[in-house]
């Protein structure tokens, strides 16, 4: 880990500067931009957490809304009894515990059966919460917070969660656990015969991703004055997170983040209209027919085909004789840029 950080110290430096700039964003921009970045951070964390388990093992889960809602209701119940940081940890633990129980009994399913079960799990928890709320005459629960600048608090918390989720996904992908997840996705029977405890790996990673989803749900609900079961267990979360992860590319740790950012920006532009639903359908078609691996492999190919050093050398006139006029250097530099753009198009 330290050797890699030293080798790519320029990348670590740029990433650190970017994280600092994002952390200072609320103090230099409008409320609208802060709200937009709150949505981006939440979706990046959710899509990365989803891809951490489902993208590698190919157990397609539609239970994001279930764990998201569990985190919301846990926070709504315990935040009046515990300090806010402990209430958020309790929400994450509740999501982990629910996923642990569910995973132990259902991760033996595979394919369409697992997809249908996870979709039904959200509706089951939704109806159970509704029944419990009506029985106890507590259909609506109010959220009380005494934190000043609550939007800044929510943004900073979600930013930390998103960055840690992406970093943890990247780190785990290079460990034995990451290799075990990919082996399960390729062929679970072969993985089991090679000595991998597939049940433990699947259950733990499923619960870990659910904990992140519950934590994100708990944080985002702090900006709501009240919640109910319809708000907490909205199946739109499950489908939007799935599309974001597949659009960006679940095979790369950073791929779901790219898809989440694009989807949030698209949703922001089409907010309040019926065109967003059409756009989601088009995203499905594009993913299936044109980008089965998502945008991440395409970005990697473009990056590998881009020789920035050679272009800078031409722009500086390194291949030209001394004393060449600068217009000639500029002309050759522009030709090099156009050639690279044509190469990108062919990719």
Secondary-structure blueprint:
Layout: H1 2-7, H2 9-23, H3 31-57, H4 64-78, H5 84-106, H6 112-135, E1 141-142, H7 150-172, H8 176-186, H9 188-193, H10 198-220, E2 226-227, H11 229-232, H12 236-248, H13 255-269, H14 275-289, H15 295-305, H16 308-315, H17 326-346
Antiparallel strand pairs: 1-2
Plain-language structure description:
- This protein has 347 residues and is an all-alpha fold.
- The protein has two domains: 32-274, ABC transporter involved in vitamin B12 uptake, BtuC (Orthogonal Bundle); 306-346, no CATH class.
- The protein has helices at residues 2-7, 9-23, 31-57, 64-78, 84-106, 112-135, 150-172, 176-186, 188-193, 198-220, 229-232, 236-248, 255-269, 275-289, 295-305, 308-315, 326-346; strands at 141-142, 226-227.
- The protein has a two-stranded antiparallel sheet.
- The radius of gyration is 23 Å and the shape is globular.
């Amino acid at each position: 880990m330290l050797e890699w950080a030293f080798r790519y110290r320029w990348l670590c430096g740029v990433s650190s500067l970017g994280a600092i700039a994002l952390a200072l964003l609320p103090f230099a921009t409008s409320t609208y931009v802060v709200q937009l970045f709150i949505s981006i951070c939440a979706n990046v964390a959710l899509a990365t957490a989803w891809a951490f388990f489902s993208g590698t093992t190919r157990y397609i889960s539609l239970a994001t809304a279930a764990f998201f809602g569990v985190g919301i209701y846990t926070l709504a119940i315990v935040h009046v009894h515990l300090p806010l940081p402990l209430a958020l940890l309790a929400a994450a633990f509740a999501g982990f515990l629910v996923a642990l129980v569910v995973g132990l009994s259902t991760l033996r399913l595979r394919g369409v059966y697992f997809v249908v079960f996870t979709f039904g799990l959200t509706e089951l928890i939704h109806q159970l919460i509704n029944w419990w709320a009506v029985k106890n005459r507590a259909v609506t629960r109010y959220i009380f917070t005494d934190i000043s600048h609550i939007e800044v608090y929510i943004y900073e918390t979600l930013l930390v969660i998103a960055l840690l989720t992406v970093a943890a996904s990247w780190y785990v992908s290079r460990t034995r656990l990451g290799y075990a997840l990919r082996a399960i996705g390729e062929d679970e029977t072969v993985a089991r015969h090679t000595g991998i405890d597939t049940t433990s790996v699947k259950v733990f990673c499923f619960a870990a991703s659910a904990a992140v989803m519950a934590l994100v749900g708990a944080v985002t609900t702090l900006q709501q004055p009240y919640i109910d079961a319809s708000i907490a267990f909205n199946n739109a979360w499950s489908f939007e997170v799935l599309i974001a992860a597949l659009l960006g590319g679940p095979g790369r740790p950073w791929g779901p983040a790219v898809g989440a950012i694009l989807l949030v920006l698209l949703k922001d532009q089409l907010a309040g209209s019926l065109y967003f639903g059409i756009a989601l359908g088009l995203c499905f078609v594009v993913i299936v027919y044109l980008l089965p691996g998502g945008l991440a492999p395409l970005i990697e190919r473009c990056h590998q085909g881009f020789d920035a050093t050679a272009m800078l050398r031409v722009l500086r006139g390194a291949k030209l004789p001394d004393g060449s006029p600068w217009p000639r250097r500029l002309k050759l530099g522009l030709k090099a840029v156009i050639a690279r753009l044509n190469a990108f198009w062919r990719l």
